[in-house]
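Amino acids appear as letters; backbone shape is given numerically. Here is one record.
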Amino acid sequence: MIVIKSAAARKVIKVLVPALLIPGVIAAGAYLFRGRHYYAVTLAVAMLSLMLFAAGFERKKTGTRRLIIVSVMVALSVAGRFIPFFKPITALTVITGVYLGGEAGFLCGSMAAVISNFYFGQGPWTPFQMFSWGLIGLFAGLLGGMLKKSRALIVMYGAVSGVLYSFVMDIWTVLWYDKGFDPALYFAALGTALPHTLLYTASNAVFLWLCARPFGEKLERVKIKYGV
């Protein structure tokens, strides 16, 4: 894996990859390929997520240790998606971003989406899921200083993230259904998904209320022990 040593280059990649390149790849898949070749789009988003994480490497040794810790969080997120009616994948992505950094949060969210979809089903929706959960982890890292200090804030962030995840995913729903973006259809899709969105949001808020601090303490200890 490439180690990016320049601080300026890392900052540019952290901004450009999630803000421009990944949405550009997803848009190309949605409009140019019309839902076809989604495996190629998914692979491209996965590679860009890894590039974003590589931008956060300070030293090769430390970066490898961080990658192992993030891999564990990805595995937990994937496992969490199998819990009926209580899927804490957003909550675990938030915890990863807050305590391991925004690029780690983005990688956790995007990889958890694509890996779990090998069971739940891959499709044109996968890149949208990767991007949505990835952004949740990225912004959790950017707001990590505040979110660590307040249980109420991290729970609120998790709840809002659950709602915004539904907003982003319903963009794909409209594009798939109508082959173009129709605002009326979009709001109809939001209303139809409201019960599921509320249940999903509540489950992640409860998980963060109960587990964010214990998870965070363990991650902080691991970071100190292994010099991450």
